[in-house]
Design brief:
globular, five-stranded parallel sheet, 7 strands, about 150 residues, methylglyoxal synthase activity, two-stranded antiparallel sheet, Rossmann fold, lyase, Methylgl_synth, 7 helices, alpha/beta
Length: about 150
C-alpha cells in the first residue's frame, strides 16, 4: 500500500460553500443563512435538494441544488469536494436522530476531512468559519497529491 503524499492548493477568495441540513435542522440552517445573507451572497452556494430549494426561496440568492441527500445528494456533494469544486461544507446534522443514509453522511464527512476543507456542523462553528479573516481571501492549504499517488500505483 502506497503512502499518500501531499501538495498545496489554494482556496479562492470567493468560496464555493455546500449547505446541507437534516430535516430536524433545516430551520436552524435557514435561520443561520438568513442572518448571514450578506456574507453568503459574496460566495457561490450549493445545497442538497430540499435544503437548496428552501434556501433559494428564503434568501433570494442563487443556490445550485443537488438531489435530496437520502437519494444521493450527499454523495454528489462529496464528489464535488473530491473534484475540488467545493471549498467549505456547512452541514447541520441531527445528532439525536438516526438517518437512513448514515453511511452516505459518514462518507461525506470523511471526504471533507481527506480533502482538508473547513467543515461546520452547527451554528456556532458556522459563525466562526464565516467570520474568519480567511473567508474573504485566498488561502493556501494541504491536499492529497493525487498525481503522485497515481504514479506510485503503476
Amino acid at each position: 500500500m502506497s503512502r499518500i503524499s501531499f501538495t498545496q492548493a489554494t482556496l479562492p477568495a470567493r468560496k464555493r460553500i455546500a449547505l446541507v441540513a437534516h430535516d430536524h435542522c433545516k430551520s436552524f440552517l435557514l435561520d443561520w443563512c438568513e442572518r448571514q445573507r450578506e456574507r453568503l451572497r459574496q460566495h457561490q452556494l450549493l445545497a442538497t435538494g430540499t435544503t437548496g430549494l428552501l434556501l433559494g426561496q428564503r434568501l433570494e440568492l442563487p443556490v445550485e441544488s443537488m438531489i435530496s441527500g437520502p437519494l444521493g445528494g450527499d454523495q454528489q456533494i462529496g464528489a464535488r469536494i473530491a473534484e475540488q469544486r467545493v471549498d467549505m461544507l456547512v452541514f447541520f446534522w441531527d445528532p439525536f436522530e438516526p438517518q437512513p443514509h448514515d453511511p452516505d453522511i459518514k462518507a461525506l464527512l470523511r471526504v471533507a476531512a481527506v480533502w482538508n476543507i473547513p467543515v461546520a456542523c452547527n451554528e456556532s462553528s458556522a459563525d466562526y468559519l464565516l467570520s474568519s479573516s480567511l473567508m474573504e481571501r485566498e488561502h493556501s492549504y494541504r491536499i492529497p497529491d493525487y498525481q503522485t499517488y497515481l504514479a506510485g500505483r503503476r
